[in-house]
Amino acid sequence: MNNREIKRRIESVKETVKITRAMFAISMAKLTRARIGIPAADRFYECSRRILGGLSYTASPFFEERGKRAAFIVIGGDKGLCGDYNQRLFERAYQALRTREERYLFIVGGAARERLSKVGIEADVEFLHSAESPSPEASFSIAADLINLYREEMLDEVFIVYSRVEGDHSVVPVERLLPFDREEATPFYEEMTESTVDRAVYEYVAAAIFRALVSSSVAEHFARVLAMPEATENGEKMISELTSEYNKARQESITRALADVGSLENRYDKRV
Fold this sequence. Notes:
The chain is built from 6 helices and 7 strands; from the N terminus they run ααβαβαβαββββα. By secondary structure, it is α/β, with parallel strands linked by helices. The protein folds into 2 domains: 3-20 and 228-271; 38-225, Pyruvate Kinase, Chain: A, domain 1, CATH 3.40.1380.10. The strands form 2 sheets. A 5-stranded mixed β-sheet has the order 3-2-1-4-7, sandwiched between helices. A two-stranded antiparallel ribbon has the order 5-6. β1 (70-75), α3 and β2 (103-108) form a beta-alpha-beta unit.
């Protein structure tokens, strides 16, 4: 590269470093806000799970093992620049999806959709822009679709794939939501109406999805907080290397110019 190209590259990398620094600050703020929602989402899930477990004496398809037609809710991010967050989720989801020949795929997040589409797995239902700002409304909407399919016997199992921060790293669990496991329940009602069980299932599935959305949001911001300092450091290193290259090229240019001047002076002196 000539000096002009090197200088242009330095300015481009400097702009990138400004962006990574800004994204780090923004992600830190978003991570702090997202973490505030974790306790409430956990309580919502545990409470709804306990209520549904209390109804598990009741005969219901939501407690019975059936076939192997499964729905997978895969929760990824809508954006990149978050390290290996989306890639790790994709790999885990791909492994889970390959275990079922008959499946429905519910996708949250454009990045997960794009990666799965590249390996020939297309989403049946997409919920884009729900990963950035998790809401109970989105969770209930997804839950309603799932429960309708389950009730119509188009589904036999429901799984959810999402990311969760544990300590200083994140994990990608695959959890089965339906059928509800009676062995993990503590029944306290002998028999309840079908509509009561249906409502409890609806609340439980929505709560599980909402908890996963909040957890995934925290994990995505956490990954970006870890990735941005490394990107900034790499950018600053590149700027240093390019600056050294620029200074070296500039010095060589000056040396050549001086040599040319000296050569011209020598030729002039000889003529004189």
